[in-house]
Amino acid sequence: MKGYIRSHAKAANVGFTNYIEYRFDEKSDDVWQDTFILRVNRPFPLGDGWKIGTRLDIPLVLTNKSSGDNPNGKDTFGLGDIVLQGVLIDEFSKRWAAGLGPRLVLPTADQDQFGSGRVQLGPIGGVRYSLPELSATACYWVHVNKVK
């Protein structure tokens, strides 16, 4: 089973959003992983509906996954791989926006079981459809990320 819970707060008059996201993943053979992601999103307006959106993710991982650093599969906690991304976004109407850019994953994990152990670079893109009649932040979005 996989899932996530997200809590966020928009910093007033600053233009960036902070998230704390919790992801859980029950893997096979009684192996599980809980990830707490500290996230900062910061947009930079360019004009005419265009902006550059930036993101920093700092994952904190709790898992019983075995690895070279954790051969017995004990419960361990530590820093995962940090994610940086920048996306060029076109907000072509109040409801519709789309973006494309690079996503970089840095091998910052404390131990083998917390990350990939390698630098990863790939594209990310997405489309957003806002639903202001539900709430100011309600939307439906689809994104594609080739870095895993």
Structure, explained:
There is one protein chain. This protein is mainly β. The protein has strands spanning 2-10, 17-26, 32-47, 50-63, 76-79, 82-90, 96-106, 120-130, 139-145. Strands 1, 2, 3, 4, 5, 6, 7, 8 and 9 form a nine-stranded antiparallel β-sheet that branches. The chain is elongated and about 55 Å long. The model has no long low-confidence stretch (mean pLDDT 86).
Describe the structure concisely.
With 148 residues, the chain is mainly β.
Distance between the termini: 18 Å
For the residues shown, what is the average pLDDT? 86
**Series of secondary-structure elements, N-terminal to C-terminal:** EEEEEEEEE
How many domains? The number is 1
By secondary-structure content and strand pairing, the structural class works out as mainly beta
Could you tell me the strand content as a percent range? over 45%
- How does the overall form come out from the CA principal axes? elongated
Largest sheet: 9 strands, antiparallel
- Helical residue percent band: under 10%
- Detail the poorly predicted runs: none
Counting DSSP H or I runs of 4 or more residues, the number of helices is: 0
